[in-house]
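Researcher: I'm preparing a figure for a lab meeting and need a structural model of a single chain. I don't have an experimental structure, so a prediction will have to do for now. The sequence is pasted below. Please return the structure as tokens so I can convert it later.
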Amino acid sequence: MSLRFYLLFSFLSVPAVNASQFYFQLENDVTFNEDGNYSNGMIVGWESTAVPFESIGVKNWLQGFLFKKQYSKQAWGLKVSQRMWTPNEIKIADAQPDDRPYAGLLELEQHAAVYSGNLAQKSWLAVGVIGPSSGTEQLQGSIHKIIGASTPLGWEHQIENTATMQLAYEIDYLLLRHPALFNSQWEISSFSHSALGNVRSELNAGLTVRWGTRLEQSFGRLSSHFGHVGNLNKVTSPHSLLFYTQVKAGYRFNDLTMEGDLPYESRVEFNPQQASATTGLSYFFSGGSLTWSFNFYNKEYLSDTKQWHGYGLLQLALSL
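Model: Understood. Here is the structure written out token by token.
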């Protein structure tokens, strides 16, 4: 409880002087009539306005080390997130050695970003806890009680409490951008995303396709990183739409959601070869935006009988 209070206090203590956007994001696999693997994610975040690079200085050592001043805009943000993973069958009270274990993760994360019309760089630093202290058992139980879903019975067998730290870095490069109908544009870009930490370390590469308006002013704001929301409200027109699709493939070196300490002997091995795809739509209105997406990923452990899983994402962002 003390760690959760500290993370919440740290988030609420962010000064609002340069703030331009708060957002809330919910992810859940009920969209695909599932209730296992990656089951639920909740995020509350804050994002600064993107401003000329020289005007706000260096926000953290990662930004000073990785970002160069020739890029035009920089921004930073903070978020608190809670994620949970469960076995495919949550009605079983006993341990399930051949299915992925219960795991809950609570994180506080800061990011810094630099954007231009054809190149973008982003870095993240997150600290948190995986295990009972994350509070995911209580959250899932409450949600399932409210909606009348099956009661999860196996949380006593979850990954035990472990402090976590994650670093991540992503770079986007524009490949193609062309005008389209109704004064819109479409573009194709490539990206690479790297993560290092005791939760997950991995290397990924992928492609992004976007269709909308004023794309050169919002390049790189969309990210494959979990829960990242670049501020688009100041660079898009009210009552406009943005369609996007991302595909990604990579290699995972470790996965604490399956390799962490457990009160039983698990026979599950994580799958190092990973792939995912996302397709979504954002609607921008005066003072905010609403985003909905469908997300797919291949099996995360080798003995999983299903090759693919999915979840839906709903996000509300409000300008200050």
